[in-house]
Structure prediction request, 159 residues.
Amino acid sequence: MRLLITLLGATTAMLAQLPAAKTFTSAADVAAMVNKARNERKPDQANFIQPLLQAAPYTVSLEYRVKAVDGTAAIHETEAEVFYVLEGEATLKTGGKLRDEKRSNPTNLSGTGIDGGNSRRIAKGDFFLVPENTPHQFTDAADALVLMSFHVPRGGPAK
Prediction:
């Protein structure tokens, strides 16, 4: 009986730490989030991220990036990312090798840039996938770049 109570307590504590599910965001809410990002982003902040939808283990975020502040190069080892460009344009670089690679958390690496790889200009309406273990970076934004990003966990061990 003690074991059952202990397990129930541990499960309850674990569930309490998960963010509450958010399964809908209206167009008005998205517009308000973009305005919030414009007003609250710090001048040297490369990416202002706000959650659009959440249902563990999935997260869909609104990402707001600006001209003259390039994003950090990154690798997500256990999840792919699907992006949709809501407004603006920038250069997306994928592939290659992270420059000055360092571990930013247990499943992500970051760097100051990418050596090699492929560059492409992205713009409003573009939809693309960055597979897991793929270096990627957004640079040269023309004014603001507003993205919807969907993190897709692989569900298995990192490669």
